[in-house]
Amino acid sequence: MYSFKTLSPIDFENLARDLLQSELSIRLESFKAGRDEGIDLRYTTTKNRSFIVKAKHYAGTGFSGLLSHLKQKEKSKIEKLNPDRYLLVTSVDLSPANKDDIRQALFPHIKAPKDIYGKEDLNNNSFYRGVLSMEAGFLLLELRYKDCSKHFVGVVFSGR
Fold first, then answer.
1. Residue 157 forms part of a structural domain
2. Cα 52–chain centre separation
3. Using 50, 70 and 90 to split pLDDT, how confident is the model at 139?
């Protein structure tokens, strides 16, 4: 099972985007890193219905830190945005009771437990494992490139 601990927050957000786009067969809008007013990813229909996705990379913090952050920081942002649907993707291990606690904390914006994707959900089927393997492969290539590039020295030719 992939733990996601090695991913940066933006890499985790991009992974969440890739997985949800594939599962939901839609294109989610992505935005630059930084302050996002509660929107990591967004989907809007032609009838101005929208849903918001928040990716929370709290693998090291755990459930209590995630729930506290959602209540103290995210809930007011969600209420201001008032989306038709709100999805949460997190790198935290979640139990059914944890999902119920999150749903209750963010009521009425999270409509069902299926709108909360925990670590197990992200690892739960062969398609996701394929995307995760592909993402991990790209990450390894990037790390190899960075590791090799430190051994190269710029050479400047003068004259001839």
1. no
2. 12
3. low
